[in-house]
Amino acid sequence: MTENVHHVSGLFYILAFIAMFYMAYNLRRLFTVNIGRAEDYRPLSFSAQIYNALSFGAGQRKVFSKRFTYASIMHFFMGWGFLELLFATTVDFFTARGWLLEYLPGFDTPWFAFINDTGGAMLIAGCVMALARRHGNKPERLPQNNFKGRGNFLGDSGILFFLIFLCIGGFIAEAARLGIQQPETAHYSWLGYTISKMGSLEFWAMVHNTAWWSHAIASLLFISILPMTKMFHAIAVVANVAMTNREKRGLLRPMHVAKMMEDPEADIENMSLGASKVKDFTWKQLLDSVACTECARCSTVCPATNTGKTLSPMKIITDIRTQLYAETLGMGKTDDLVGNVITEDELWACTTCGACMEECPVLIEHVPTITDMRRYLVLSEGKPPTQASESLEKTMNNGNPWGFQQNDRTKWAEDAGIKLPTLAEKKEVDILYWVGCAGSYDPRNQKIATDLIKILEHSGVNYAVLGKEETCTGDSARRLGDEYLFETLAQKNIDTMGQYKFKRV
């Protein structure tokens, strides 16, 4: 018996249309990010977007990590198993309708059936591994959202059980078909074939229609609710990595505070500097939050989290997502993020080391988001952390965070018996050596600066320093949220350096 046992009825296509329509409606979650501000400082070419989507999205390039071996293997089975079944289902749909057959050569073969069964087995294995990880030896940082989660229907474990049920239903429907048709190549569908041997021809003929429709309805239900479940990340992640400029990850957004303050039309009284509300973030920062899979890798490697601080980078991102859904989809009460949903202690605990970003498999940028909220606290609320207030004041008054005198910037060289060539004297050099605050004032770093000067001298390099004209870069002030101080210091250094000629710094 070679012809299909079950002919797809019109009812299935009606239900499929309803399911696709409902899925499209629920995909509005992805477009909630439009509430955010425009982001125009990190353009990305179309070819780079395609590469990111295929490599980091579909290819899961950063999912595989030696640090998280079990989770990497687990997601390999789940991810590639799901993609294979998605591809196979699409091919079967077109084949059943007789569409694009000339473009689908070689898929109606025993080997394709073997690959399909292997993909289903991989997905089941991955889901079982995930359930064992959540209900057995659960990592400390992994959130406990087993059957309900913030903004996720069915939670983490619920969707895993649903996927297992879906796969088993598919194998039973396949077993029924093989049990009735009994084709010579049935053994290539190795899992369905094994199940088919457990029943007689009469049994499979009796259950085939029920098995097929049960699996079909479950599949359509999965499609319709996908955007509301944890599986939504399969869509959101691809969008997020596609729009991420990997060469500029972690780049802090320029604010041009001075220009904003000097604008005669600016509403100074009601101006919000930094980010406190969802709409204050860029759409890309909001897309980061939507794409978060809550894998907790960021929190696992965070030094602040691991030393008992209140910060969890994952919580920061998911708090923004929860607030985004609350404001755009009416899924809860809305408050300002900073000071309510996200505490000041959480924000100030961040060291801005970037370990979270380095580990994130979906290229989320935690540090710029945290820094934007710090900017709000410092620039809009005037509330820098207590321990940093004095440092910021000294940086503003003395050009370094320790409050040493500007005239002492070259004292380290004088104490070492080194006569530093300055640009004020030479006007033009090949190399401008930027000593920095640490090299100028910190005893440990002064030794490094001294040794480097000796190397430059011995090598005959034409170099010079700014000397007493050099001032703090303002990087520490910027990471503490004082963007205005950073811009002031940066512009001062730019003006100073613009007076001279050099090839490299």
Describe it.
The chain has 505 residues and is an all-alpha fold. It folds into three domains: 10-242, Fumarate Reductase Cytochrome B subunit, CATH 1.20.950; 249-383, Fumarate Reductase Iron-sulfur Protein, Chain B, domain 2; 399-504, no CATH class. Helix content is 57%, strand content 2%. It contains 24 helices and three strands. The longest helix has 29 residues, at 69-97. The radius of gyration is 30 Å and the shape is elongated. The protein starts with 9 loop residues before the first helix and ends with a strand.
Topology summary:
Layout: H1 10-26, H2 28-31, H3 46-58, H4 69-97, H5 110-135, H6 155-181, H7 190-196, H8 201-225, H9 233-242, H10 257-262, H11 283-291, H12 297-301, H13 303-306, H14 313-329, H15 344-349, H16 355-359, H17 366-380, H18 386-398, H19 411-415, H20 423-426, E1 428-432, H21 436-441, H22 443-459, E2 463-464, H23 475-479, H24 483-497, E3 501-504
Helix pairs in contact: 1-8, 3-9, 4-5, 5-6, 6-7, 6-8, 9-11, 11-14
The gyration radius over C-alpha positions equals 30 Å
Look at the structure and give the CATH class of the largest domain.
Mainly Alpha
Number of domains: 3
**CATH topology-level fold name of the largest domain:** Fumarate Reductase Cytochrome B subunit
User: What is the annotated CATH architecture of the largest domain?
Assistant: Up-down Bundle
Calculate the mean pLDDT score and round it.
89
Structural class of the helix and strand makeup? mainly alpha
What gross morphology would you assign? elongated
- Strand percentage lies at under 5%
- Main sheet: which strands, in order across? 2-1-3
Note the run of SSEs as H and E: HHHHHHHHHHHHHHHHHHHHEHHEHHE
Q: Tally the beta strands.
A: 3
